[in-house]
Please model this.
Amino acid sequence: MISDKSEKLFRRAVKVIPGGVNSPVRFFKPYPFFVASGLGSKIVSVDHETYLDYCMGYGSLIFGHSYLPIIESVRMQLENGTLFCIPSEKEVYLAEIMTKIIPCAEKVRLVNTGGEATMTAIRLSRAFTRRKKILKFNGGYHGAYDYVLVKAGSGAAAIPSSAGSIKEISDETLIVEYNDFGELERIIEKESENISCLIMEPVLANYGLIIPEKNYLTEIRKITKKYGILLIFDEVITGFRLSIGGCSEFFGIIPDIATYSKSFGNGFPIAAICGKKEIMDQLSPSGDVYQASTYAGNTVSVTAAIATIESLLKNKNKVYPTIARLCDTLVMGIKDRVKDFDNHYTLNSIGSLFQIFFTREQVSTPRDILRSDQKLFENLFWDLLKKNIFIPPSLYETCFISYSHSDEDIEKTIECYSDSLNKYTK
Ligand SMILES: Cc1ncc(COP(=O)(O)O)c(C=O)c1O
Model:
């Protein structure tokens, strides 16, 4: 359990790092455990506890920690330079494979983080449409900057907006409820001439886990096209995870722009904006939409992304069916072993993503999550941690299964979840 060393490290950390952590979701009370290493499906804390990991870098580690083929490729690259800031062949090769895999990708620009990618996608949309406003969903998290930090999910779920944000900028962001097409239609019909883009996670994975209702994405594609609003799929989580071509391939809906990160580099910092040629060519130096970054296309991250995608391509008929089967086994196992499950709980899952809610009602919009008992979620988090299972410490996050998880891991997890859930319903 969390003990001496983690507590001491946290005391040191708060003196020099705001809140003791470098990203707010990492904090939980009284203090988080500190990690020492990770391999496959497991991480080891500085207190020598081994945890089965379902946070997986918030979805980044589709292959699990320190996956050898990726680590070996990166190791070789390290001997040959890490950053040049002039173009390299690997960047071209990576963009070429992406244009083959990602349905909307005629051109690709590499950046370092998901936030940079979505910020650029929005700027491109504004330039392309010459409209100012953007539409996003309540609970949609797209990064930590002003015009998307409005009713955002993930670590920002508890705050309506951030102190220090400029109101005039956030005022340009219109919010709609996910899975409520009627509301979206009303706002679009009223404001269409001002709306540049609709940015969305096709599967909402930053406010718990919410799955799109049947035909919802098809209707969204139709209405955005009709009013000349660019559709941005923020696939920072779902890209390369739900399928190799992300949600676009999974649901067969092609957006105008899509953004990728997380599973794209299996734990290395890399992200991308992909889109149609006429939109992407607005980026400088070919166009007048400015975007730049010193570390964009650095050889380490590019090598990791190439190794990740090549491993996914080589094993695609094994990876995706395996992680989905493990997830289904986990979900079915918990439902089978928890007495009267449907009268107390709801479990949402898709592909290798899952999240439990402490309500018997269906959870299909962020509003529904507010019915889920927060206290019971906290109890579950601590119960699981005591049993050496680490899930993200917030109901507003999603749990992830990697290709390194084994049937044995899943069986243990079913046992631990059902043991706790049965206890709460006694
Ligand atoms: C869907 C989505 N978009 C964007 C981001 C921002 O990515 P980053 O934290 O790399 O800036 C995240 C981060 O969790 C995300 O989940």
